[in-house]
Structure prediction request, 241 residues.
Amino acid sequence: MLKKLLVISLIIVGLGQFTFGQKTVSPAKKKLVTQLVANTTEMFPIQVFDDFLKSAVEKATAEQGKEMLDNLTKSIEASNLSDERKSEVKAKIPAFVGRMTELSRTLLSKGFDVRSWTAKSLEKNCQQQFTVVQLQKLNKFFGSADGKSSVTAFGRVTASGIRGGEKDSFTVEEAKILEQFPVIVGESVMNKFFDIIVKNVMDDITKSVEIWGGNMLKNLEAEAETGLLKKEINKFIAENQ
Prediction:
């Protein structure tokens, strides 16, 4: 009994130290972080990621649809159905493949949310890295007309660089605006902010994409084995024996 009491006491003490050791974020700081996230999220090439996903999904589903159409047509041709019945079933195949392609497109895109991943990472890093005073200075710049223009410029230039081809660059006017950034927030805060954007947040987004990719394949496999894809396939087969 004494041993149990000692163990319990140690656990309680440990939990107490853990709890008291946690850093709480004040409502004022949370508000400033939320404001900064809203002001700066568009610096990231979110649309580029979304366009890439859409292109990849369209390519994958188009290939899948063509393969399914060819395989089903060959299967019907090789079946023991009468020629009349074969013609009837083959006429149904394009519509069926279209439904399956649309379902696959939805499943492949499920859970892909770069905007949310970006905002969450920005929020986490800004809470950890900046003081209230520093956040106030950052919001002073990014909440201004010049700051908003710089966010748009960064988003445009970054997206252009990722897409490749002829890369865009800052205009003379945009460069002048950016010169005000370190004046308002301080050079060390500016450097820290860009370090967070270039490394921390982009690393977080990359990890989120990797997790999404793994889950996407699992979801698709599960649907093909026991979910909606499997049900649709079984239904089509049952109706066209």
